[in-house]
Amino acid sequence: MSNRYKLLVVDIDGTLLDVNGVISDIDKQALKAAVKSGVAVSLSTGRVVQAVRRFLNQLELDGYHVFFDGALVYNPEKDEEVYIDPISPELVGEMIEYSKRVSLDFDLYSKTEFFAERPTWATDIRRDFFKLNARFIDFRQIQDRERFIKGTLVVASPEEKQKARDFCNHFRNRLHFSWTKTPAYPDVDFINIVANDVSKGKALQSLVSFMGISTDDVAAIGDGLNDISLLTAAGLAIAMGNAPDEVKSVAHHVTLDVSRQGVAEAVKQYIL
Known about the structure:
Number of helices: 9
Structural class: alpha/beta
Helix content: 25-40%
Distance between the termini: 9 Å
Strand content: 15-25%
Strand order of the largest sheet: 8-7-6-9-11-10
CATH superfamily of the largest domain: HAD superfamily/HAD-like
Mean pLDDT: 95
Order of helices and strands: EHEHEEEHEEHEEHEEHEHEHEH
Number of strands: 14
Shape: globular
Largest sheet: 6 strands, mixed
CATH topology of the largest domain: Rossmann fold
Number of domains: 2
């Protein structure tokens, strides 16, 4: 079968994962059909590598994927990095000192580990929903010994959200922030913190260059604000029905909601 597109890039939360954190069998079969027809499928997510492995297994996907909101393009099976853009050690140190000063909990991630300074309701979510177990440690003990790719703020109350906004303002133009949600926790904001020039769109550019194809050969599906750079870089941009208007406005097409298997519908309509 001849396909117009050589690569399909798909977001996870709100695109593949429903409110229960499950990928529907219909979506699974659609992506497997795309692969069988000769289209490579890559996931593009703000999630860390450890939180994506089970979905790669469910979807029977190997190859290269985008993690950490675009800070890492990586093949977990081969342990092969195509592109990485960690946070500078100097900025990590400033983040640690600022968060301690204002009593704001945040997480840090290397390529293989999740670090937190103490157990909180947010680390409970990481454990129960994302299947990530934290290593609890004073960040000052490891700030010069690890390569940190991402930090995360997880906030729910108005006070926490204001502190998070203040944090973002304090590091404005020096770090990149994306506010994301997952349907399983509609009242919780997950703020990804990465190096200032990181984006899913830039990661896609690195991936297609590595693959020897053009962005015109890429179709992308997403629902979040952090997917805008991905969608605008792809040859075909598809927004989920549950995406906000800002995301829909940059898409060529809008598919069904995640609860109605929008990914499968998009694959059927535009890929196969």
